Automatic annotation (TrEMBL):
The keyword Metal-binding applies. SMART domains: AlkA_N, ENDO3c, HTH_ARAC. Its cofactor is Zn(2+). It comes from the Bacteria. Its EC number is 3.2.2.21. Keywords: Activator, DNA damage, DNA repair, DNA-binding, Metal-binding, Methyltransferase, Transcription, Transcription regulation, Transferase, Zinc. This is DNA-3-methyladenine glycosylase II. GO terms for biological process: base-excision repair, AP site formation; DNA alkylation repair; methylation.
């Protein structure tokens, strides 16, 4: 039993601090109550291993609850697999939201998990992961093994197994192609891992794809062959689960106000509330993600995807929509403040929009300083038109039967392109243009690295050191890129106006910790969405931040 496994305490009267609970944040009695209640809110926050059956499950598994003496709890699926347990075929414990702990905590293991979910180990190895985090490989392995019950290779293996299961059940690709697309180095390694994790051969696992209603798959689709070797899939449709509730109306408002032509498109939809399309720049090339709300999940259709980038694409969409958040915990905490209670009660499922790409978030935020969102969108669109790289795919307007002259989908310009040519494209005060170009240069030279694995306080300091970046920009970008749930946008004009309306002192918000990012979004929503509004705006929304 590893140090990160929580078993039933031998005695409830034992004095002192439980070192296991201190390192993992898991409490046996609390975890077991969630297991007994089959509480889906805790799916992905921990996993239950059952000694008598040799399987591990999500807390909401519909199977009979095992006796407490036969159960232990672990923080990661990799920890369960390292203990010799296989995934439950009934509840599919990998088809769940991720743990909110990886954003809530700022420790090394949490930051590592964000990067592992993005496929960094498959692309750069353990050394690359350690380098991004600023530690030696040996120290990183020791910390992850102690705190999560598995080292970086085991954690990446569990992640590859999940990617492989999705491809097995979502596509009709040959198994050999799935093996390389999921990141395995050989078909034999792939077969062995699937058998060990799921207790089935890959072909037997595929045969179950229509039998499990708890799956994250949608209708299986055909895909191009040999995608693991660089070719691209036609399309894959996934259901990305989240913890209820989810205020999709608020997210529609946000997407409508910020969508930039060419890179993304938002449109209202009578049947599905809204549709959001977005070009993703991924390690092996671009893909197009189309997202629509569902009941308990977002449906995401990925087109033009090199399947080696599946995990990165899923991770970035999840981060954009804050799908791993525990919004109930945030709502409960913020509702204790009388001044916020009514605002939070109106929209308990408000989430914090995340970042698809850290460099893009910084550039777009700097462009939007001290101007309206609509004006910022026009400036960014001009930049994309001039410096974006065309994908060769018809634009949304052409897809809908519109004018083919509307152009092609484009990738957001690279930092290097903005650094070289931005001064001739951007308009406005010379000082602002110089600051944006300087920030792009810093990103291109890696002197500033706005990515999901960086410590939030370190990124905030790096941003403030850039000319032209003030507290508002540093706060907003840090919140979006790292997913830090405790950033108060105290310098934001909309937040300040909302606080004034509600007689809130923004210098006295300690009681909101660690959920001040969510408090900021509630204040935004209170100020920006008219009372009684039930539908998102058109993309002409002109709000100021």
């Amino acid at each position: 039993m590893t140090a990160s496994t929580v078993t039933r305490p031998q005695s409830s009267t034992t004095a002192g601090t439980d070192p296991v609970r201190a390192s993992t944040g898991l409490d046996f009695e609390g975890c077991y109550r969630a297991l007994q209640a089959r509480d889906a809110r805790f799916d992905g926050q921990f996993f239950a291993t059952v000694r008598t059956t040799g399987i591990y499950c999500r807390p909401s598994c519909p199977a009979q609850t095992p006796r407490p003496e036969n159960v232990a709890f672990v923080a990661t699926a990799a920890g369960a697999q390292a203990g010799g347990f296989r995934a439950c075929r009934r509840c599919l414990p990998d088809a769940v939201p991720g743990s909110p702990r990886w954003n809530l905590n700022k420790d090394l293991s949490s930051r590592a998990m964000r990067l592992i979910a993005d496929g960094v180990i498959e692309r750069e190895g353990v050394g690359g992961l350690a380098g991004r985090l600023g530690y030696s490989t040996r120290h990183l392995t020791r910390v992850l093994s102690t705190e999560l019950g598995a080292g970086p290779l085991a954690l990446a293996r569990a992640h590859r197994a999940t990617s492989a299961r999705i491809l097995i059940q979502c596509t009709d690709l040959p198994m050999s192609d799935i093996a390389f697309a999921a990141g395995f180095t050989s078909v034999r390694q792939y077969n062995d891992t699937i058998r060990e994790v799921f207790g089935l051969t890959p072909r037997a696992l595929r045969s179950l794809r229509r039998a499990n209603s708890r799956s994250d798959i949608d209708t299986p689709t055909a895909a191009s062959a040999a995608t693991g070797r660089g070719e691209r899939s036609s399309a894959i449709t996934l259901r990305l689960a989240y913890r209820e509730p989810f205020d999709t109306s608020w997210f529609g408002w946000y997407l409508a106000a910020h969508s930039v032509d060419g890179v993304e498109r938002y449109r209202p939809d009578t049947d599905r509330q809204w549709i959001h399309q977005r070009v993703l720049t991924l390690p092996h090339g671009p893909a197009l993600a189309e997202t629509t709300p569902g009941e308990g999940f977002l449906r995401v259709r990925l087109q033009h995807l090199d399947l080696r980038d599946l995990s990165a694409a899923v991770n970035r969409v999840r981060r954009l929509f804050d799908l791993d958040a525990d919004v109930v915990a945030a709502t409960d905490a913020l509702s204790t403040d009388p001044a916020l209670r009514r605002v939070v009660g109106v929209a308990p499922g408000v989430r914090v929009p995340g970042s698809i790409d850290g460099g893009e978030s910084l550039i777009r935020t700097m462009i939007g300083q001290q101007i309206s969102v609509a004006a910022a969108r026009r400036h960014v669109t001009r930049l994309v038109d001039a410096l974006g790289e065309p994908t060769g795919w018809p634009s949304a307007a052409a897809d809908d039967g519109g004018d083919d002259s509307a152009g092609l989908w484009q990738q957001f310009p690279t930092a290097a392109a903005i650094a070289e040519h931005g001064s001739t494209i951007l308009t406005g005060p010379a000082r602002r243009i110089s600051a944006i170009v300087g920030a792009a240069q810093a990103i291109a030279e890696h002197s500033v690295e706005p990515h999901m694995g960086v410590d939030a306080s370190d990124l905030h300091a790096q941003l403030l050191a850039l000319p032209g970046v003030g507290p508002w920009t540093a706060d907003y970008v840090t919140m979006q890129v790292t997913g830090d749930p405790d950033v108060l946008l105290r310098h934001d004009l909309v937040v300040r106006h909302a606080a004034r309306d509600l007689a809130i002192d923004l210098d006295d918000t300690a009681q909101w910790a660690p959920w001040r990012s969510y408090a900021s979004m509630h204040l935004w929503r209170h100020r920006l969405i008219p009372a009684g509004a039930s539908t998102p705006p058109s993309t002409t929304a002109d709000t100021t931040t």
